[in-house]
Amino acid sequence: MAAALLALGAVSEVLLRADGDVPLPLALSLALGTTVPVAVLAGGDPVTRQPFAPTRSPRGLSAAAAVVVGAAGMLSLAPFHVLTGAGLCALLVSLHQAGRRGLKYLTALLALPFIAYAVTTPAGSGVGERFLTVLTAVGAAVAAGTGLARSARDTALVNSAAEQAIADTLLEHAARGERARIARELHDVVAHHISMIAVQAETARLTTPGLPAVGAERFLAIGDTARTALTEMRRLLGVLREDAGGSAPDRRPQPGLEQLGELVDEARDASAAAVRLIVEGPVRPLDPGLELTAYRIVQEALTNTRRHAPGAAVDVELRYTRDALRLRVRDNGPSPHTAKGLDAGHGLVGMRERAAMVGGELRAGPARRGGFLIEATFPAPVREHAS
């Protein structure tokens, strides 16, 4: 519709301005050549139905249409001087649309002749001719520039969306992998306790003197239930051991806070830097899952420090309170590993997954006096034992 209206306007203007200097068939051909090809470039998006949006026509067809409009417009301006107002509008639309389609070099080449003609037009030309020449040159430059800028912006938005989607996918895979590792480790912790329940129930049934038959049956039922639960848990979670890549599973007991001293010593030896372990408050045994979580967070924090701030001194602080365990890991490095940078990786993802698993909270970011700080708080109320 836009192309038809422009063509109708151009033909009408040519007929009204016909003065015999230019053969009418040639003038009409140039008028149609500057307007009709716009149908390919400005037909609107058939999906979004937005007018003058980039269509899904082939790039070759769009380039050919832009060349026809540009050539007809240049011939209409010089040497025949029959460029119409509709033709000028069509020319600007074609240059803008060619730029939006990413035809960078072609758009520049099509706009350049109009700018060169405006610069080289003799000063003695008529005022009307001079005005039309300058207007066409400025309009061509602006239309081409805005089209190219729009194309660059659209490309940047698409690339940004793709990068964000990839980053979200990577973080999701990292979170799933960390959850799988957490499940494997908890499998070991819970399996140990369930096994102890089964063993103690069987031992009590066999070694308690004078145990009534009903009590023996109940101990036997406890042992059977524990063994059934252990079998079902291994069936559901044991397969998670295989997602590490076929390596042999580690049969060592899962570490806890008692092994933090060894972890700190290893970090000190590996980085040749000062690594301190500071413990405040009365030390008491905590839930094995919570201790394993705290250990893994410290382990990951020390690894991040060696990777992002090699040689920096690190303080690992454990504070036991009546209701919680508070953990702080702080280094004094130049802190190139900002919170944004770490979020882009997988370190903090695993830490937060682990902290949330035991009902805790984790915060990470640059410390006030330099370096990087990781703080975690875990609910660990003191258990009251009946006397």
From TrEMBL:
Domain Signal transduction histidine kinase subgroup 3 dimerisation and phosphoacceptor: 178-243
The keyword Transmembrane helix is assigned to this record: yes
Pfam families: HATPase_c, HisKA_3
Keywords noted in UniProt: ATP-binding, Kinase, Membrane, Nucleotide-binding, Phosphoprotein, Transferase, Transmembrane, Transmembrane helix, Two-component regulatory system
Residues covered by the Histidine kinase/HSP90-like ATPase domain: 291-380
Bilayer-crossing regions: 63-93, 105-125
Enzyme Commission (EC) number: 2.7.13.3
Catalytic reaction(s) noted: ATP + protein L-histidine = ADP + protein N-phospho-L-histidine
SUPFAM superfamilies associated with the record: ATPase domain of HSP90 chaperone/DNA topoisomerase II/histidine kinase
Keyword Cytoplasm (UniProt): no
The name this protein goes by in its record: histidine kinase
Species lineage: Bacteria, Bacillati, Actinomycetota, Actinomycetes, Kitasatosporales
